[in-house]
Amino acid sequence: MSVLTSARPQVVAIEASEGYWRSVLRRFLKDKVAVAAAIVVLAIVLAALFAHWIAPMDPYAGRTFRRLRPIGTEGFPLGTDELGRDMLSRLIVGARMSLLMGVTPVLIAFGIGSVLGIAAGFIGGWFNTAVMRTVDVFYAFPSVLLAVALSGALGAGLGNAMLSLTIVFIPPIVRVAEAVTTQVRARDYVEAARASGASALTIVRVHVLGNVLGPIFVYATSLISVSMILASGLSFLGLGVRPPEPEWGLMLNTLRTAIYVQPWVAALPGLCIFVTSIAFNMFSDGLRSAMDVKA
Amino acid sequence: MTLFLLRRLLYALPIVLGVSLVCFALVHIAPGDPLISVLPPDATDEVRARMMAAYGFDRPYHEQFLLWAWRALHGDLGMSIATARPVASEVIRAVGNTLILAVAATVIGFAFGLLFGVVAGYFRDSWIDKAASTLAVVGVSVPHYWLGMVLVIIFSSELGWLPATGMGPSGSSGWVPDLEHLKHLALPALTMSVIPMGIVARTTRALVAEILSQDFVGALRAKGLSEGGVFRHVVKNAAPTAIAVMGLQLGYLLGGSILIETVFSWPGTGFLLNNAIFQRDLPLLQGTILVLALFFVVLNLVVDVVQTLLDPRIQRA
């Protein structure tokens, strides 16, 4: 497996990694809430991947004569939307865009933020100051504001929305990465490696990465829930996915006018965002305690 | 003390500069012609050039930035392209409205968050603790724009108790805390309060639990102090952190109100941003974001200073 080892200082050997991961899995499986959350996350991901096979109807095909049917209508178990399209099918297919928009920025930010943060923590000095002061500037913007400002300036669209969210999530990841790397750098085994003549790259690869990627990753998973809400929020404002593409935030927006006609149908897309976000949150919490990360 | 204040202020200066740079850059990362919404599509090159010069878009970036920052420093944020009114006055009016909403939400969120947090911290692992923890997770996981819609469905559409949108019977002018205005405030403020509520409950629970586990609490009890007396000590120890969290949350709510304001048609900064984005009114977008971000920086500074004043354990050096 990978070289990820625990944050505990004594675990350095590669051979220990399998044992560590087994113990993480064992602890994770004991946590009933985390397992339930993992199952929900898995179900949503699978639904998104196989959406076009699972969806009972064409999510784009509408009929004006069957607009805004209530939940439980024959043939439309979750009713129909404002253009007479099957809600169930649109919610299933909508999972694709919502997940893509929510997860991708965190993954990219995890990559960029880790590199920057680890480099800042390891190199230190002026480089650290330059990176961390830049990060401070982005911290001066509340995340919602920054996301809206960037995607508003860049213009509506899926790519711009994801780019904005990536920029929003890089600074917090850099901060966490820098903090854990600075801690690890001060440990005795890094000192020992340096004394034994290991190059900086070797130290980073062998000793630092293995000990910092775990905590950074756990932190990144906790951002997915926020990202899902923000991403759908951008679509809700009309800054993300464009119609007629099904996406939960956009669906919530277009159904807003229907809340006096079919309130519970109109609320469904938001429920999907909520369930996904809470599942990711609890999954991340479980992962954090199973991996014994204190951050 | 003065030294501490000075240092803290000095530390904020580069942040302010950075924030201004980001806001300035917003207009320049925008694709297309910045004058696209002012000029007719068939404008001649000569008119275009004259307008570019009038707005200063023909100068090099650093000159444009200095000019813009100099004007902003004097309260001039330029003219709104859509309404031709000064951006500064539009933003100030909107900030007032958002502040009403954010303060109300902070008060509600804090009252309940503290209550849940303290109770959960005192009775750890009881059902109250579990309920409070669940509430905390729900609070941070719920898409608040959706929660707002659900509250409208329940309290306006189904029960008919509260108005669904707007700030009051006469629009946004002349806000006074009377019954009619408070009714309009109820749903958006309640929706917004869920965000700090969860975070405050979580922080307070951890704080109280940690304080109660410390030796001095045992010592206080051993010397025969009543539970009420012990609680006073808990409050004293928890207050600086709690106040810091409160200040930061208020800042987040001020800056993050756009989605809730859109749901409830609340005429605040979020509403202004929404208009600015869809009318491609870049000076308005830039000005609103600058004001909100600077507000957040100042709030952070105040929180930091207040926390240091309240908590003698923090070094003031």
Briefly say what this structure is.
Chain A is mostly helical. Chain A has helices at 16-30, 32-49, 51-54, 87-123, 125-139, 143-154, 158-185, 188-195, 200-236, 248-254, 263-290. Chain B has helices at residues 2-29, 45-55, 61-73, 87-122, 127-141, 144-158, 179-212, 215-222, 227-255, 258-264, 269-278, 282-310.
Description of the structure:
Chain A: The chain crosses the membrane at residues 33-55, 106-127, 139-170, 216-239, 260-283. Chain A: Belongs to the binding-protein-dependent transport system permease family. Chain A: Keywords: Cell membrane, Membrane, Transmembrane, Transmembrane helix, Transport. Chain A: It is found in: Cell membrane. The complex is a heterodimer of chains A (295) and B (317). Chain A is an all-alpha fold. Chain A has a single domain, classed as MetI-like (MetI-like fold), CATH 1.10.3720. Helix content of chain A is 71%, strand content 0%. Chain A has eleven helices and no strands. In chain A, helix 2 packs across helix 4, helix 4 runs parallel beside helix 11 (263-290) and helix 5 packs across helix 7 (158-185). The longest helix of chain A is centred in the middle third of the chain and has 37 residues, at 87-123. Chain A is elongated. The relative contact order of chain B is 0.15. Chain B has helices at 2-29, 45-55, 61-73, 87-122, 127-141, 144-158, 179-212, 215-222, 227-255, 258-264, 269-278, 282-310. Chain B is 74% helix and 0% strand. Chain B starts with a helix and ends in a 7-residue tail after the last helix. Chain B contains twelve helices and no strands. Chain B has two domains: 1-38 and 62-81 and 280-317, no CATH class; 90-141 and 190-275, no CATH class. In chain B, helix 4 runs antiparallel to helix 5, helix 4 packs across helix 7 (179-212) and helix 7 packs across helix 9 (227-255). Classes of the chains: A mainly alpha (295), B mainly alpha (317). Chains A and B meet through helix 5, helix 6, helix 9 and helix 11 of A and helix 1, helix 5, helix 6, helix 9 and helix 10 of B.
